[in-house]
Amino acid sequence: MAIGADELPFHDWQVVDPASMAYIRHLVESLEHLTFDDACMLQLDGGENASDLFNLHRPVITGVPHDVASALNTLEEILSRGSPTLEAYQREDIRETRVLQEEKVRTTMAEVHYIDGLVDEHMDAVEGTRARLHAARDTKQQLLEKITAAAADGDVASLELELSEAEESEAALLAEFMNQWQSVLAVHKHRGVAKNRFEDEVVALMAIPQLPGHSEDQHLVGDAEERYEDSVLLLDEFLDMQY
């Protein structure tokens, strides 16, 4: 979309209306470092301090090639606030935001499921230790009963040794059980945090609307991006030819 040498006689380049030239230079400088996405987001920014690319009054453009005037019209058509292109871009931005939010929901849901698995593993370990602890206590009780029964004969030394070993086993299992139970409580706490995070992400997702018309908006925005880039390049080339 470069300007052809025969687009306008050379001497006419020197008589471009100063107001037209100032407007073109202002617009090119405003867009100089802006991608299409940057320009759209700038125009969609409705904050109090938001700037408008077209805040400078456009004069009647005279003394420029037709392609230059057409490029100006194209940029205003695409980027003027309230334009169909900006509205489509905003809808596409909302759709992209929803896609990203859906991914956050899936990620946090997976985290909850993972922690659920850890809870099950820890509870299995706790139940296994609990069963061994009960068995150790049963063994100790049986030894106590045997010692009581054998006390009359006085032959309790070997039983007392077994009892001591049973008590040590019980103490070790009790310590293991308490440590495992603390781990269960910690994992449950993490699960609560993960579940809250998941629920927050779901609430955020529900606040983002599902918009129809994706293919139409995608086509409109894609076409506008190409036209934007061509128009900015053409205006930049036009300014270069003025020096």
UniProtKB/TrEMBL annotation:
It comes from Oryza sativa subsp. japonica (Rice). Keywords: Coiled coil. This is Os12g0426300 protein. Residues 126-176 form a coiled coil. The keyword Coiled coil applies. It comes from the Eukaryota.
